[in-house]
Amino acid sequence: MLHDRAIRAYLRALLPTANDVDEVMQEVSVIAWRKFGELDEPDNFRQWVCVISRYEVLMHRRQKARDRMRLGEELELLIADEGIHELVVRERQLEFLERCLEQLPPDRKQLVLRVYAAEEPMKTIAEQIGRTPETLYKLMSRLRRSLLECVERSVAEAGQS
Amino acid sequence: MTEPEITLLEQYIDGTLPEGDIVQLRELLKESSVARAMLRSLATVDFGLQDIASCNTVSDMPVSGEGTNSPNSVHPQWTQAAANSSLAGWKGVALIMTSIASVAAVGLLGLLAVEWWSGDESAGDRDSLTASEVRLAEVRYSHGATLQVQQPMNEEHDQDGASYRMRLSRGTYSLGNGFVELDFFGGAVLAVEGPAEIELISQREARLFYGRVTVEAGDAQISFLLHTPVGEVLDIGTRYGVYVREDGVTETHVFEGLVDIQPTESRKAARRIRAETAIKLTTSGVAEALTVSESAFPQPTRRIANLLLNSDFEPGTELQVGEAEVGRWGGDVCRVVGEHHGIRPFSGDGMLLFQSTGRGRDGRASATAASQLSQWIDVTPFRSAIAEGRVRVKLRARFNRVTGDEKTDSQFTINLESFGVPPEEARRLLKSHPQIPRSRASCTLLSDSKPESWEDIKTSLALPPGTQCLQAEVLAFENVLNDQDDVSEFDGHFADHLQFELIVEPAGSEVSMNLQ
Predict the structure, then answer these.
(1) CATH class of the domain comprising A89-160
(2) Disulfide-capable partner of B191 in A51, B69, B214, B498 (CB 3.0 to 4.6 Å)?
C-alpha cells in the first residue's frame, strides 16, 4: 500500500507491539482494498487510511480489553487524531532515518541493526559485547534519541532549503 | 520533557514499562501534547529501525549465501512472544508466517505436544549402533501436541544459539496426534500426520506402518523410497500421499509426477501411478481405483522457486518497454548486458542495466525519478493456501554500480505488491489508482561505490487472503541527480540474480481438521 511505512509508524504509536502493528495493518489493507471505491479524492488517501487504521486499532484493542497496559480509549483516540496531521512529517523522517543511521560510528550502526533484526535475545547480544542487558538498553536508548534528533533536524533543514 | 518522562515513553514503546507505571504514563500523556508527540516520534524511529533491520541489507557480498532473515514483525523484546503464539486462526498464522519458518517451527516444538516414542529396536543394541548416530532427518515443523523423546534424537544449537532443531537418527517413531514435517537430508520432505508409526531407514528411505504421510520428493534426480505393508513406493519426481490403515490396506494418491509401486508379493508386476490418480491396495494385492484427494493428506512446506521467469537476466531475455506481463519483464528502458564498465554479472553471462526512467523507444528521460522493471506472477494455483493465510513470498536481488562521483545516483529498491484481482485487471487499475496494492513489501539499498562487490537486499510478504497476483519490481532511483535531458540518466547501474520464492506453510489434512 502506498504510504505503507508512514501508516505503520502511525500505528506503532497506538499499539503495544510490532506484532500488533502487523495484525492491524493486515486488516487495514484488506478494508482499504474493499472500500477503495468510496475514496472520492485520491489526494486524501493517507488521511483516509489513517481513519480506517484508527478504527481498526480500537477494534483490535477492544479484543484485548484485558490488557492492563492500555492507555485507555479516549487517550488512544487523542494520540491517533493528532498523529493523522503528522503523516507527511513522519514519512519524511523515515526517509532520513537510514541516512542518519549511516552517520553513526560503524560499530554502533551494526549494534542497532543487530538488536532490531531480533534474531538474538538482548541478553545474548549484551553478553557478546561485554555489557549487561541494562547498559545495553541504556545505550540503545541513547542511540535512538540521537537518531531521532538527527531525523528531526534533517527534516527541518530540508524544509528550509 | 524530563529524562524520567522520556524513559517512560521509551519503556512503553519497548514493552518494558513496569505495570505500576502505566498510571503515571497515562497522566503524562493526558496532560502533555509534547509527550504525545514524543511518543509518536519514538514510535516512528522504532518502526523505521525495525524496517531497516528487517530489510537485511548485506553489504559487500561478492558471493551469495542464504542467511536467516527476520522480517518486520518481530521486535527484540517480543521474539519469544511471537514464537509462543498459537497457530489457530488467520491472525495467528499470519503472525507465525512473519517469522522465519525454521525459527517459528523450532519455537513451536517446545510447546506443541507430539507423542514420539521408540517402538523398534530391530537394528540391534542401540548403544552399539553406529548407524543410529547418523542423522537422517530433521524435524522442521510440528503442530499439535508435546514432544516426547525416547528414540535417539539429537538436539543441536542453531548458529545463532537462540533455538534448537531436532535431528532424528535411524529408528521407529510413533506419532500420537498432530503432525510433523520431516526434512530428510537426502532431499525429500515428509509430512506425517498422527496417529502414525514410521521407521526412518536412511536419508532416502522410510517405512510407514500406519498413518498418513505426504512425500514431497523434490529433485527428480533423487528418489525417495517408502515401504508400506503392500509394497515399496518409489517416486519419480513426485509429490504424493500414502495412507496405511491399521489393517495394512494402503492408499496411494499421486498429486504430481509419477510413482511406481512394487508389490511385496514378488510375483506381482510393479504398478505405475500417474498424477491425479489414486489406488487402494490390500495386502493380498487386490487393487481398487480411487478419486485422488489431496486434502486428505497433511501438506508439507512447499517452496516454489520458478515463478519469476528470466530472473538471472541472461542474454536473450526479453525486456518489454511498457507494460509487464505474467512471466515477462516490462517497464522503463533497460537492457541485458554482459561485462559492462568493468563490472561482471553476479552470475551467468548477463545482468540488467538500468538505462532510463522513461519508456520511450528513444530512451528519453522522464520526470519520474526511477527506472523500473517488473514482472507479474499469477498465484491463483495457491488460492486455497492463500485463503488460509499460509503463503508468503520472498524476493532477493543483487545490485551493483560504477564508482562514479558525487553526482552518481545510489539508490536501488525492490518491491513486492499483492493484488486481489487477476493480473490484467490489476494492471488496468494501477494506471488510474496507484494505491491499489492490497499489501506491499519493499526494501531499499543505498549502494556503495565499490563495483568489485555486489550488494544484496531482500524482502518478504505474507499474502493476504484473496490475493490473486503479485508484481515483483526492481528499481534504480535518481536519488542524487534527476537528469531531465537526453544524456544517460544512469552511469552504470545493474541488477542481477533475482530470487523469488513462494512458500506454502505446512498444514494438517482435512481429516485431522474434522477430528479437532
Answers:
(1) mainly alpha
(2) B214
